[in-house]
Amino acid sequence: MEKQQLLTLLKEIREKSPKRKFTQNFDLIFNLQGLDIKKPDQKVDFYLNLPHNRGKKIRVCGLVDAQLTAQSKQVFDTTIPKDEFPKWMNKKKEQKRLADDHDYFIAQVDLMSQVAATFGKTLGPKGKMPSPKAGAVVPATAQLAPLVARLQTLARVQTKNDLSVKLPIGLDTLKDEDIADNILAVYNTLLTKLPQEKNNLKNVLLKLTMGQPYKIEDMKKKEEAKKK
Fold this sequence. Notes:
Elements: H1 3-16, E1 25-32, E2 45-49, E3 60-64, H2 66-75, E4 78-81, H3 85-88, H4 92-100, E5 104-108, H5 112-123, E6 137-138, H6 144-151, E7 154-158, E8 164-171, H7 176-193, E9 201-208, E10 214-218, H8 219-227
Parallel strand pairs: 3-4, 3-5, 5-6
Antiparallel strand pairs: 1-8, 1-9, 2-7, 9-10
Helix pairs in contact: 1-7
């Protein structure tokens, strides 16, 4: 996959797509093959930092104890101290609004059992429980400002219920150069996570939220072209 190829495709998508009255995402889709995602070691699930943010401010909620409360209130969008956890217990509507309003939840490591007991039933199904893989479970001595900065470009790449990976790669307000850099970063990292690298890729697609998918790469056609 080459950057110039992506820039050409992005230009084509923009030219051919109807104008909308709202901002759309460019969605990146990898259709996979030759994997059994029922086996834990063949699932795809990792985080990486993109070269550029995706055009949207990432909102963060801190679930912390007294050691981090003051710092959390300075750098996070929302802070819920430990002593306020009981107020949130069994309040499904309020917790759902909280989850929908934030991209990441950061928890102090020694509070994880209380976080799970209080918020787990809401955050778990939405995939928003504080994740050690994302660096979202922190010690009481953590410096939170660098974490917030890192989360602005963090992307999760994962298979869910089928042999595909889908993720927003950037808003259509971003420059094509930035979107292309983000695509290449995900593509190149994903290849290193697949046991057979390109052989596990069926095709790679790019689309706007409300648009049709365009093929970036079709591995089957590539192989057929090589044979000829």
